[in-house]
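For this section, I looked closely at the sequence of one protein beside the tokens encoding its backbone, which the following lines show:
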Amino acid sequence: MATAAQWIQGARLRTLPAAIAPVLIGTAAAYELQSFRILNAILAALVALLLQIGVNYANDYSDGIRGTDEDRVGPLRLVGSGVARPEHVKWAAFAAFGLAMAFGLALVIITQAWWLILVGVGCVLAAWGYTGGKNPYGYMGLGDLFVFVFFGLVATLGTTYTQAGQVSLPAVIGAIGTGLIACALLMANNVRDIPTDTAAGKRTLAVRLGDRHARESYVLMLAVAILLVVVLAPTRPWMLIVLLLIPACLMPAWLMVNGRKRKSLIPVLKQTGLINLGFSVLFSLGLVLSHGF
């Protein structure tokens, strides 16, 4: 039976910045629209965090029962390592999804935007369908697209909308940026797993691109995400503080391009998660400081 520490490790805490980042950016965009609402922001954060944890447990379960994780290099997988029973991990995923839907419903009731229920259902279905079901889209190379859409566009713009009732150009730019960094994190994970994913028939985008181009795409995603803030600089000059993040990107980018041993790519996951969190903080700070400039 898995220990509490192993369950926490299985939740993959390093990926949680990808859930917090869009909420921070979306909230800052709402603040710029003079519609900051702390309760709505907290509920959005809880929904995002629980969905991310649910995805991680669901991925652990689905990959584990398929045998994809039998020879995996990286953080502990509960099912693949045999420390937890598959059905327990599945129910942990469902519990996280259930709590996310409960907090999401509370947010819908507060905002009276009932159509967001459909968005919430779509989020849960996408979370489970990544590696679950008969035809998981993560095995077809579509995982990166769904991560960009749900952990970038939907999470960021949804946060802004539930506070301001509208979205803005900074919200869109921020959504694209954090979405690309979340995709970079997924790419770092999938590049490391190319050999085992190929053997298991898991055709991730990294597998389809091939080792070299997949590594290069990681660098490209980080570069576009950070440099895109220049679009906002003419009217919001403080947005240029996001460029301070460039030095933090150099080491993980170098490791991705030059790290040939699979274990050498493991630190890139944590570094990319921190980059996403740093991006969201600097982006949000830039919006706040530029407000009324």
About this structure: The radius of gyration is 19 Å.
